[in-house]
Amino acid sequence: MPQVVVEPRIRGFISLTAHPEGCAVNVRQQIEVARAGIAGRPSGHLNSVLVIGSSTGYGLASALVSCFAYGARTLGVCFEKAPEGDRPGSAGWYNLAEAHRLAKAQGLTFRTINGDAFSPEVKAETVRALRDEVGPVDLVIYSLAAPRRKDAQGQVWNSTLKPIGAPYHGRGFDLRNEAVVEASIEAATPEEIEGTIKVMGGEDWRDWATLLRDEGLLAPGARTVAYSYIGPEVSAAIYRRGTIGRAKEDLEHTAHELHALLRDAEGGGAWVSVNKGVVTQASSAIPAVPLYISILFKVMKEQGSHEGTIEQIVRLFRDQISPGHTPEVDAEGRIRMDDLEMAAPVQTVVEELWYAATTENLALTTDFAGFKADFLRLFGFGVEGVDYAAPVEVDRPLV
């Protein structure tokens, strides 16, 4: 079995390598937080859960909370790279390899289908796995983030991150040089807007929910939740009012359609959960967001309201979407898990620091060190207690 020293190879907003043991420790730590945050776990509280986009970020956290905090039979769908010889696999692969290992040791059900979640073949495989191993699901989490989608008719759509109507000129952050810069992005074409909606909007979520209903794989009272983000005014031109925001609006319209489809006397329904800004590969690619999140982390940590990904999902499950709870929603029917982020005492200080931050005063006006640490942890690096100088086994299977 190949053992190699794995070092980070950072290219912009992605690492080309992932550390198997660092990812494993991350998963174990998230499970500890999940179990501490979910008390009681009554039998049957959540029997079966499907997580679409289960290998990293909010999707991974949702799968870990489902399986290890609630004891639910958990099936995840994702698209990750397996290790090959002495070449490491992706971080998502190693996250799931550890979750599989722990679930098996503890007598829990944690399964993964690794493939293109947009494809009819993966949807059919998921239906078979639910019938054979998991059963009708109480909860479907839709946490899929992808740059492109091949639809059922074979057409390929690409998503873009662009403003709509006019170019963006404003503050940004150069991750490679760790510098506050002026960023410019051209406005999206109609074709780019349509493509982004096709990839990141609600169409595929609707396809999944409809398929599961038609196949009889939604338990009575089944719920489905898709994850979204709104963010502050400082990033609105390239996010909420841009191509991504247009896709998120489509996602919200889909939630209303699915809610009418799934609502029943036992509490079924569909919602969009607007989550807090955290460090992800996707968020790191948005010019204004690394600077904003670095400032946000500083303010929320100082005010004692900061949550990481797993803490956010624990609160969402515990207080909002698990059976027996009625989700609290805003005027548009959305669950607002970004409530602490968007609180006036937080955003007032964030806005002040947004305009004050420069490359020279970065350490004083932001928590970029915290941003960078979270970014490295996405790929299993910078985790306390891991010996990065030692060779590590890279061939870790999904068993």
Describe the structure.
The protein is α/β, with parallel strands linked by helices. It contains 13 helices and 15 strands. The protein has helices at residues 20-37, 57-69, 91-105, 120-134, 190-200, 203-214, 243-262, 281-284, 289-303, 309-321, 344-356, 362-365, 368-377, and strands spanning 3-4, 10-11, 14-15, 48-52, 73-78, 110-114, 137-142, 148-150, 156-158, 168-174, 179-185, 218-228, 269-274, 335-336, 392-393. The longest helix has 20 residues, at 243-262. The model has no long low-confidence stretch (mean pLDDT 93).
The gist of it:
With 399 residues, this protein is α/β, with parallel strands linked by helices.
Give the SSE layout.
Blueprint: E1 3-4, E2 10-11, E3 14-15, H1 20-37, E4 48-52, H2 57-69, E5 73-78, H3 91-105, E6 110-114, H4 120-134, E7 137-142, E8 148-150, E9 156-158, E10 168-174, E11 179-185, H5 190-200, H6 203-214, E12 218-228, H7 243-262, E13 269-274, H8 281-284, H9 289-303, H10 309-321, E14 335-336, H11 344-356, H12 362-365, H13 368-377, E15 392-393
Parallel strand pairs: 4-5, 4-7, 5-6, 7-12, 12-13, 13-14
Antiparallel strand pairs: 1-15, 2-3, 8-9, 10-11
Total strands: 15
- Spatial separation of the terminal alpha carbons: 16 Å
Instruction: Let me know the average pLDDT.
Output: 93
* Series of H and E elements: EEEHEHEHEHEEEEEHHEHEHHHEHHHE
Strand content: 15-25%
Q: Main beta sheet, described?
A: 7 strands, parallel
CATH architecture: 3-Layer(aba) Sandwich
- Provide the helix percentage: 40-55%
Low-confidence runs: none
Strand order of the largest sheet: 6-5-4-7-12-13-14
At the fourth level of CATH, the homologous superfamily is: NAD(P)-binding Rossmann-like Domain
CATH topology: Rossmann fold
- Under the CATH scheme, which class? Alpha Beta
- Described by the principal axes of the CA atoms, the overall outline is globular
Rounded to the nearest angstrom, the radius of gyration is 20 Å
**How many domains make up the coordinates?**
1
